[in-house]
Structures are given as C-alpha cells and as structure tokens.
C-alpha cells in the first residue's frame, strides 16, 4: 500500500523517562530537556514545506505538550487520535523498568512489552497504527511515542527503518517518511 508523506515526532523527555519508569497509558510532564527537544523539533519542522499537511497527536499529555511546543506555531489545527497513544503496559504502568523481568531476546526492551501482565502487546499497536495510516487522506505531521512511532515507521518504510534503533531513543528527532523511505532530520 502507498501511504502519504509523513513526519513523525516522539514526545520530548518526561520525568518518568528520566527515572526509567514504564509510562504506557499513564503520563508525566516534559522535563526542561523535553521542552527543549520539542522546541528543536519545531525548528526542524519550520524548515520544511508543510503546505497541505494535517497535524495529529496522541491524546496523552506528554505528546500534546510536545505538539503544543513543536507544532502550534505551524499548524492551524492539531487533532488528537487515540490510535496514536503509547502501548499499554498493564500492571507495569508506573513501575521502574530495571525492576521488571528482561527477556533474553535480540531486543529485550521491546520483548519486555510482550510479557507485561495485562499489557496491550505489539500486535495490537500495529493494528491501530495500520488503521490510522489507512485512514490518513494526505500528508501529515504526527506526534506520538516510542513504541507507537517505531511501529508507524516500520509500517511505512519496512524493518530497515527500525534496525539498530532502541526504545530509549528518538526524543527530539524528526523522522521524514516518503515513498517507503525514511530520513532522520537533525
């Protein structure tokens, strides 16, 4: 399937990111560094021709806060879409990541999401990301989260788009995806 051109932003650093907590569907505010990362994303986007682009964000506070800093000067309307929320981590919400079991897997941190009790799981995230992209009618700027953004990028540009990336990265970055290819803008 051919998808419209998109820019994907992960929210800036939060207090819980700094502490190493699993956020999932819970929220914590952006740190000062997170606010600076969002401002940097806005500066990157300001250099792009976004004529005709729609703006979407996860409804979770950290993404909305990032969208407000990075996109509000550029967007007439920023719409929230529940399908862009972060993966649910069930009973592990709010817990310190380093106190939780870490599977023996090629990417143990992503595998951790699959074993979270009452968690959502990667397949469910993929389903809602695919639904969002299927409904996308034109080019868009998307503000989302680590796992959700990674999943969107994999759908749009294939497994090479996430090769070598980790769940801990991506804050302050802007990914440009067009015609099945991905570029990291800095």
From TrEMBL:
CDD domains (alphabetical): HP_PGM_like
Gene3D superfamilies registered for this protein in UniProt: Phosphoglycerate mutase-like (3.40.50.1240)
Pfam families the UniProt entry points to: His_Phos_1
Signal peptide (residue range): none
Keyword Isomerase: yes
GO CC terms: cytoplasm
GO MF, one annotated term: phosphatase activity
Superkingdom of origin organism: Bacteria
SUPFAM superfamilies found in the cross-reference section: Phosphoglycerate mutase-like
Keyword Disulfide bond belongs to the record: no
Residues binding substrate: 10-17, 62
Entry keywords, A to Z: Glycolysis, Isomerase
Active site per UniProt: 11 (tele-phosphohistidine intermediate), 86 (proton donor/acceptor)
Name the record gives this protein: Probable phosphoglycerate mutase
Top-level taxonomy: Bacteria, Pseudomonadati, Pseudomonadota, Alphaproteobacteria, Rhodobacterales
């Amino acid at each position: 399937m051919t998808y419209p051109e998109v820019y994907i932003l992960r929210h800036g650093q939060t207090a819980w990111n700094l502490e190493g907590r699993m956020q999932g569907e819970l929220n914590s505010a952006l740190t000062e560094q997170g606010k600076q990362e969002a401002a940097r994303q806005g500066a990157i986007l300001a250099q792009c021709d976004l004529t005709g682009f729609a703006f979407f964000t996860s409804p979770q506070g950290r993404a909305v806060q990032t969208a407000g800093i990075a996109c509000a000067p550029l967007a007439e309307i920023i719409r929230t879409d529940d399908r862009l929320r972060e993966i649910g981590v069930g009973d592990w919400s709010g817990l310190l990541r380093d106190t939780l079991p870490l599977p023996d897997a090629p990417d143990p941190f992503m595998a951790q999401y699959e074993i979270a009790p009452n968690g959502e799981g990667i397949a469910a995230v993929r389903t809602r990301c695919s639904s969002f992209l299927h409904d996308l009618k034109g080019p868009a700027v998307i503000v989302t989260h680590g796992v959700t953004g990674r999943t969107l990028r994999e759908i749009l540009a294939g497994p090479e788009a996430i090769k070598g990336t980790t769940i801990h990265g991506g804050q302050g970055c802007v990914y440009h995806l067009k015609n099945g290819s991905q570029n990291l803008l800095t």
